[in-house]
Amino acid sequence: MKRSAFSLHATRMAVLALALGSLAGCESLNDMFASDRVNYKDTSSAPPLAVPKDLSSAPGDQKYVAPPATVALGGAAQRTVTQQGNAVLGVPSAQDPLGMHVERDGDRRWLVVDGRTPDDVWPQLQEFWSDNGFTLTTDSPNTGIMTTDWAENRANIPDDWFRRTIGRVIDFAYSSGTRDRFRTLVSRGPDGQTDISVTHSAMEEMLTGQDKTGSKWVERPRDPALEAEFLAKIMQKFGLTDAQSKQLLTDARPSVAAVKVAAGPDGTTLNLPEAFDTAWLRVGLALDRTNFTVDNRDREKGIYYVRYADSMQELKGDGLFGKLFYNPKKANKNQGPEFQIAVRPNGSSTQVAVLNESGQVDTSSDAQRIVSALHAQLN
């Protein structure tokens, strides 16, 4: 794993500390070889990102404290005890004895919680991301969008003998050179259930220049395995065991429908051969996996409001000098134009189109690129 120029300098300083006589305690072999896949709790994050002005703020209390698992208090959903003895947030049924199941479309998975509304699960999700070391930069129950800050997975830093001894004195200076962000979409399903998806975005700091003293941030591919890891952790937050959550991921039910492109004189649209509720969820998942980020969404009108996501601009504030000179307000002004993605019922199918400011199908080249990106993701 690469280390940033600042991290390499920190290592040299640690060597100097050793020469001056700084010592650290020894650890057992078990501790030396122990490792976790996920550890964001001790991370140093990028500066808070500004929430778009047109995105409504969460009305809920950010200091929400969860009640005991089986007690309904303050609007929290009462948990149900399953035959297996789990106190789960979902409502068990013959089809879903654990009160929830997982559905998939290719390598994309989402959790379906039976008998619960988005309002029922929202406080638990807020608490979940906080427990895992994240700060929420978007927390909007009105739109069902929850986004974390950019954070570092400390489990990716090599745990060599030097870091386990002298390196602990300045462990904060070590960096994996990577940042991760997670977006949670919470949607109301057609039968009173709630659909929850987690999407991963990633950046990596690459050293530049002949002497490797500079650096720049580049995008990394999303990690479906990491998305599944957090989906499993959410299921455990909702009352399942580690083994049960992994089994539900393994038994994920397919939810696939072919998407067709309809090109006409009035513009290009997509036709999904499925009902609006399912199409709405699939389009949201597809948008989350393109370079367009969802600023807002109106399910009643069937519209997603999206804009191009410049992740590298957002991460300019990371690092020693970035925190001194980065201006998030100025960066927010430089964001690209907003597009409207309309998802509308069309008989037994659903039509998806990019709209212009007049509410008509957008025929611009940018709109065509969005349609092509959606088609690729949906298929």
From TrEMBL:
Keywords: Signal. This is Beta-barrel assembly machine subunit BamC. Residues 1-24 form the signal peptide. It comes from Paraburkholderia tropica. Gene3D superfamilies: Outer membrane protein assembly factor BamC. InterPro entries: BamC_C, NlpB/DapX. Pfam families: Lipoprotein_18 (PF06804).
